[in-house]
Write a structure and sequence with these properties.
By secondary structure, the protein is of the alpha+beta class. The chain is about 45% helix and about 15% strand. Strand 2 and strand 3 form a beta hairpin. The chain binds zinc ion.
Length: about 130
């Protein structure tokens, strides 16, 4: 089963694979854009950012986990990551880019089932 075989793949690679297989073409990690988005669709002026739940403090069990070692160091650092993400999305929007954030937990089964439709909806929306 495809879902099981791909289980351990990095979330960003999974998203790239799905989007590519759906026939969309994109560029990777454009450093001239805020946040260096993972997938960039220049003609559509859209970007996809794939975020790890822990590093970007997603509001999910994985993202809410407290770091075991040196929480006094890590928690403010992770909080800064989250704040930076907010600014990044604002800056992208100000430049006319539409952004979609895909979370690591959304790439894992069973959440992955709706992912392809979500990506398609995002990319085909004018
Ligand atoms: Zn998550």
């Amino acid at each position: 089963m495809a879902l099981i075989r791909k289980r351990d793949t990095k979330p960003e690679l999974v998203v790239r694979h799905i989007v590519h297989r759906m026939g969309y073409r994109f560029r990777l990690h454009r450093p001239d854009l805020p946040g260096t988005p993972d997938l960039v669709f220049p003609a559509r002026r859209k970007v996809i950012l794939v975020h790890g739940c822990f590093w970007h403090r997603h509001d999910c069990p994985l993202g809410s986990k407290a770091p075991r070692a040196r929480p006094e160091y890590w928690i403010p650092k992770l909080e800064r990551n989250r704040q930076r993400d907010v600014v990044t999305l604002e800056r992208l929007a100000a430049l006319g880019w539409t952004a979609l954030v895909i979370w690591e937990c959304e790439v894992r089964p069973p959440a992955r089932e709706g992912l392809e439709r979500r990506l398609e909806t995002f990319l085909d929306r004018p």
